[in-house]
Amino acid sequence: xxxxxxxxxxxxxxxxxxxxxxxxxxxxxxxxxxxxxxxxxxxxxxxxxxxxxxxxxxxxxxxxxxxxxxxxxxxxxxxxxxxxxxxxxxxxxxxxxxxxxxxxxxxxxxxxxxxxxxxxxxxxxxxxxxxxxxxxxxx
Length: 139
What we know:
This protein is of the alpha+beta class and 139 residues long. It is 33% helix and 24% strand.
């Protein structure tokens, strides 16, 4: 392939990538309950399942509370996702509690994706409601 053909080939690849990015971007922001930003309708069940894995000992948690999912961005580089915050006091040992912890849960396509460990900005100003289901968690 000569220099002009190679440039044309690279140009076509760049255009194809740009067009695919545009299509993906539109899908992310549809807001119609489909795609990557679908509302997490089963968020409490997802959080309970994730906590079983996330915590070394998920039993006997105290003072658990949870916020409602809201669409927000974790940073300037992360696109908006549904997130919620969870506060709880987990056991450190059989008889000692660790102290209050707060994590943000990120959802993708309506399902739990990951916990964010230091959610100060994400959880600022959220309204918490009791989450007794987390306090009754078993292994």
